[in-house]
Amino acid sequence: MSRKRTQRSPSLKAFAWPASAAAALALASQAALATTVIGDLNNFDTLNDTGQTGYGFEIVFFYVRATDITYTFDWNHYGAPKIREDLSDLAHPKVFVRYESTWDPVGQTWGAPNGVTNTPSFTNTASPTTTPPAGHTCTDTSVNEGCEHFGVGYYGVPSRIVYNWLVDGGAGTLVYFGSPVSIATPNWTYTPPAAGVPAQVVAAIPAPVVPIPAQQKFGEPTWVKVVKTTSHNAQPIALAQLISDDADGDQLADWTNGEPDEVETEWKLLQTNNDGNAAKAELEGAPDDMGAEGNETVTRRYEFYAYGAAADTLDGETGEAMCSEVDPAVDPNDPAYLHGLGDQVAVTDANGDTYYVDCSAQVVVGNYIGAQMAGFDAAAALGLVDHLQDGDTTKPYTPRTVVVGGNSPYSITLTPADGLPPGMTLGDYTDPDSGEAHPGVLYGWPTQPGSYVFTVDATDADGSVASRNYTLLVGGPAPQQWTLNVSTTGNGTVTGSGGIDCGSTCSATFDDGSQATLSATPGTDSLFAGWSGACTGTAACEIAMSADTSVSARFDKKQFTLSVGKTGSGAGTVAGNGIDCGTTCSTTLEIGTAVALGATASPGSVFTGWSGACSGTGSCSFTLDADSTVTADFAPAPPPPATYTLSVGVSGQGSVSSKPKGINCGKQCTASFASGSSVTLTAKAKGKNHPFTGWSGACAGNASSCTVPMTENRSVTATFR
Q1: Are residues 139 and 288 in the same domain?
Q2: pLDDT surpasses 90 at 375
Q3: CA distance 295 to 327
Q4: Which of 170, 290, 343, 533 has the highest CB neighbour number within 10 Å of its CB?
């Protein structure tokens, strides 16, 4: 069968394969049986700048399948990677290529992967600098100086590719360290030769995939410097050549395909952004000729560096790096070489105010992150992948493309003929979900554990031949068993077959074909909202176990209605817990919510008290455990009296008089005055030996006079020494 992809006219897009491979993207053929193969190779160095021991590295491909993965670069501290795919959402599949150290469950330590006898895990012993490390530090497993080298080839059109360091997550687990690594994979646009016009290819490097902080428009900035060959040749490129080293000692880096390289003097600042800023989203190079027959090879190296300028050069509103150019000094030893260009750049702070930064005073290029080595060949040769990952009798084997490149259909011979594990096949594979056919794939369900040694010989439609020896290890017991994983959200438990009691026991193993039954019990404050995963609805969950299965039960807090009413002929408002009555007199709240309501009378009215869930005239507070109603009563305020009483006391030797008249205290110390009037009191000492020292009550201070507003009954005391 032919491996075909859609022909794009007038140009073809060859899709990026981060990290590796002489593998090929197959496109529709001009010939009857053969396939036009567009191949590109990508490998990368990356520096472990996590500050932690790295026990692995994972590359995540979005919107491709496991059968799209071709070559992997396996010469590092972790050996060959493990490949798995996530098909929980068939419209958005993901493939994970994971390099990892092995876990020793007895010693509770991370050990060396199979075939690796040097340092069992990668530790960052080199401080990141602006100078890339020597090539051997990334590919030579006998050294461990802070750099690793990875590579994965693929078919297809991934929507994005993300790279992550793995660190110890405890108890034999590995977890991602913080943000993804800030490196990216080149995209290639290939135009075939036509009418005397040579073939051309354009390489574009996008901004690395990094998170964009909330309320911002730009992710973390990254510098990229491009290195490329000065000319092209038709010499084939192998995966192992795309490294930073010089294995043959010709003073030329292996990635250059046997030709000298030159460093472009232009640096480019890239930032993932949702601001539509295409200039910072991707660096697109000039077209490269690939010859009249399209058989020349283009190789490139992209070096990635952190943005080293101070934080105040980042726009406070969007996160955009404003020092976005490097001083174009010719001599890299010139201290100004890594400084910014432009003496004044406008920067906006988080408040929208503008200030100016001198970019030429900033060392804008920071620590070296890693480098992507890339080669493009419009006719990748027939080949076989280097290694096969282990299988297990408890689960299907992740479909693995073994025969790569060349022109399909392939003729495949196994020696011995029955060398594969029982239940597995190497040949044409039809994806059960998409119905798409794939040639040269190893797939199936191994039923017997053991070590299987065999040779694969492949011949393509052009008569090209490839051969490789393999050892495939299969572990696991028989009969087949499956794992049921249960998770809960909210307050409730799931119980059922296999001893599942989740809360505490949320996983159990079942024989193939056995029945698992689960039931959900909500907590006293919750309701069972339904299943997701292998079951739906709210009835008991019954599963015929034929694969590893996940089920989730969701419990929602009970909710009750809080209603507020108002009575009486007065006016006022009630507020609290989303109530503003007035306008909003009802709301729905979770059980256990602390209700706190306050009543405010309008001018001319008074609040006379609560009824319903509250009583009295203070604030209304209670815990919501049922639908509840609260009523506030407002009455008209009574008219004020015609007069109010002012009482004056005297402490010590002295007297107090009032204006208007009425108070003459010691003799007359109480009098009535008109409501709303003001009364001025004057204190008079009895001789120099008894001075006035101050007021208390409705007056304050030590001035001899004070004014009292008669809006209610008042009392005042004057004190003399």
Answers
A1: yes
A2: no
A3: 37
A4: 290
User: Dihedral (C-alpha) 57, 61, 64, 65: value to the nearest 10 degrees?
Assistant: 20
Q: How far apart are CA 114 and CA 242, in angstroms?
A: 24
**Residue whose token pair is 């992809």:** 5
Residue carrying the six token digits 């077959």: 497
Tell me the mean pLDDT in the region 268-277: 94
Alpha helices, DSSP H, located in 484-526: none
Average pLDDT, the chain: 85
pLDDT in tens, 516-565: 999 999 999 999 999 999 999 999 999 999 999 999 999 999 999 999 99
Structural domain contains residue 474: no
Query: In which band, very low, low, confident or very high, does the pLDDT at 251 lie, cut at 50, 70 and 90?
Result: confident
Contact indicator for 15, 38 with CB cutoff of 8 Å: no
- Asked if residue 401 lies in contact with residue 97, where contact means CB atoms within 8 angstroms, the answer is no
- 229: nearest Cα among 207, 203, 194: 203
pLDDT confidence bin for 34, thresholds 50/70/90: very low
530 & 573 share domain: no
Residue 135: CB atoms within 10 A of its CB come to 20
Q: Given a cut of 60, is residue 112 above it in pLDDT? A: no
Closest CA to 470 of 403, 539, 549, 410: 403
Say how many C-beta atoms besides its own lie within 10 A of residue 436's C-beta. 10
- SS3 category, 241: helix
The residue whose two tokens read 């073939």 is 199
DSSP state letters, 329-375: -S-TTSGGGGBBS-S-EEEE-TTS-EEEE-GGGSB-EEEEEEEEEEE
State whether 533 and 438 are in the same domain.
Answer: no
Between CA 58 and CA 675 the distance in angstroms is 84
List 520's β-bridge partners, or say none. Answer: 494
Residue 460 structural domain:
389-469
**Rounded-to-integer distance, Cα 518 and Cα 496, Å:** 4
Does 118 score more than 50 pLDDT? no
Alpha-carbon distance of 39 to 374, in angstroms, equals: 11
Residue 339 shares a structural domain with residue 370: no
What is the share, in percent, of the chain residues with pLDDT greater than 70?
A: 89
Considering the domain boundaries, does residue 4 fall inside one? no
Residue 189 identity (one-letter amino acid): T
Same domain, 194 and 117: yes
